[in-house]
């Protein structure tokens, strides 16, 4: 009976309806007009869209079952080993660093806009380093391994990536004066939208979202980020406001004549949980073991993926640069990051 109860709680938790059920059972429906009530109503949207997306995949005979299977295993695995680490990390950093904040914001609309821009900067830093530092890429690559895009990719993360990401984002926000209550509100909005931008073509064929493609980061932009095409590699690191990608020259629109190829450049079995989850760590370990001297071994850990002690580098920057030399495509002129 305990097993059935645990399973029930996990399903309810995954669907994000536990809080809404509590409020409904209390019988006070006016609470749905409060912040907690709105949050309770929004939480189930992404899980329900994921289920609908999977059903549409079956209808269109494009279910991406391999992607769903591996991402489900990752979700279950992470639930057992890393469910509270990120929350503890955020709480610790707030308590430790808030006394050193340059100033303190308040919960007003203009400070909220400031806070969101600061949050996006912290997100850009974590995400950029996740692609440019080999050790951090080992944490992040699990999220890029799926060879199709759908909402289940939201759950494809190495369990230590969330603490690493939140440590950077929270540190930036707290030191730049973002008030903790505001920070949690931003985290909720950004997390919900960050899940939505993984929506697949079964649900949203064209992810450009019309005129919004010019104003915010859309599913189309994030599909570009998940692509391994040379033009698209290491671009679009932001989450909602793509301001920092445009500032640092990492912004890239989806080109209609360049079909997106999802996944990572390393040869791998995207249907194998162990290869998806630990494959980049194994590859790094092999490179470090083969490298001559302590300096080269350390460089493999901190240099970008594709760096080689032989000088035969195949980093994303070099691959993309070579592509741009040979092809005429629209791309922002970079500003030094």
TrEMBL record:
Keyword vocabulary terms for this entry: Lipid metabolism, Membrane, Oxidoreductase, Transmembrane, Transmembrane helix
Chief site of localization: membrane
GO biological process, one term: membrane lipid metabolic process
UniProt membrane topology term: Multi-pass membrane protein
Gene Ontology cellular-component terms listed: endomembrane system; membrane
Signal peptide segment: none
Domain annotation Fatty acid hydroxylase: ranges: 113-250
Subcellular location(s) of the protein: Endomembrane system
Key word Magnesium present: no
GO molecular function terms attached to this record: glyceryl-ether monooxygenase activity; iron ion binding
Coiled coil: none
Pfam families: FA_hydroxylase (PF04116)
Domain of life: Bacteria
Positions of transmembrane segments: 38-60, 72-97, 109-129
Full protein name: Sterol desaturase family protein
């Amino acid at each position: 009976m305990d097993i059935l109860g645990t399973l029930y709680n996990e399903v309810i938790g995954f669907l994000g309806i536990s809080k809404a059920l509590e409020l409904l059972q209390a019988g006070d429906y006016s609470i749905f007009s409060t912040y907690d009530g709105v949050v309770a109503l929004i939480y189930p949207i992404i899980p329900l869209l994921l289920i609908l997306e999977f059903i549409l995949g079956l209808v269109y005979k494009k279910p991406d079952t391999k992607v769903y299977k591996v991402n489900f295993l990752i979700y279950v695995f992470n639930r057992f080993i890393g469910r509270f680490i990120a929350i503890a990390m955020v709480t610790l950093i707030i308590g430790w660093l808030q006394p050193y904040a340059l100033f303190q914001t308040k919960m007003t609309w203009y400070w909220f806009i400031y806070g969101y821009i600061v949050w996006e900067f912290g997100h850009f830093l974590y995400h950029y380093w996740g692609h440019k530092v080999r050790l951090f890429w080992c944490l992040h690559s699990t999220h890029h391994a799926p060879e199709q895009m759908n909402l289940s990719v939201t759950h494809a993360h190495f369990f230590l990536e969330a603490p690493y990401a939140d440590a950077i984002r929270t540190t930036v926000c707290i030191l730049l004066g973002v008030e903790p209550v505001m920070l949690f509100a931003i985290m909720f909005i950004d997390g919900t939208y960050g899940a939505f931008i993984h929506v697949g073509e079964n649900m949203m064929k064209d992810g450009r979202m019309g005129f919004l493609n010019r104003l915010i980061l859309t599913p189309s932009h994030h599909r570009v980020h998940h692509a391994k095409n040379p033009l698209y590699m290491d671009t679009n690191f932001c989450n909602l406001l793509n301001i920092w990608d445009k500032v640092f020259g990492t912004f890239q629109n989806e080109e209609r004549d360049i079909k997106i190829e999802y996944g990572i450049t390393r040869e791998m079995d995207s249907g194998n949980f162990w290869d998806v989850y630990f494959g980049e760590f194994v590859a790094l370990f092999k490179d470090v073991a083969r490298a001559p001297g302590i300096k080269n071994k350390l460089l493999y850990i901190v240099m970008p993926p594709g760096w080689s002690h032989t000088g035969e580098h195949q980093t994303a920057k070099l691959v993309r640069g070579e592509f741009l030399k040979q092809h005429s495509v629209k791309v922002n002129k970079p500003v030094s990051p």
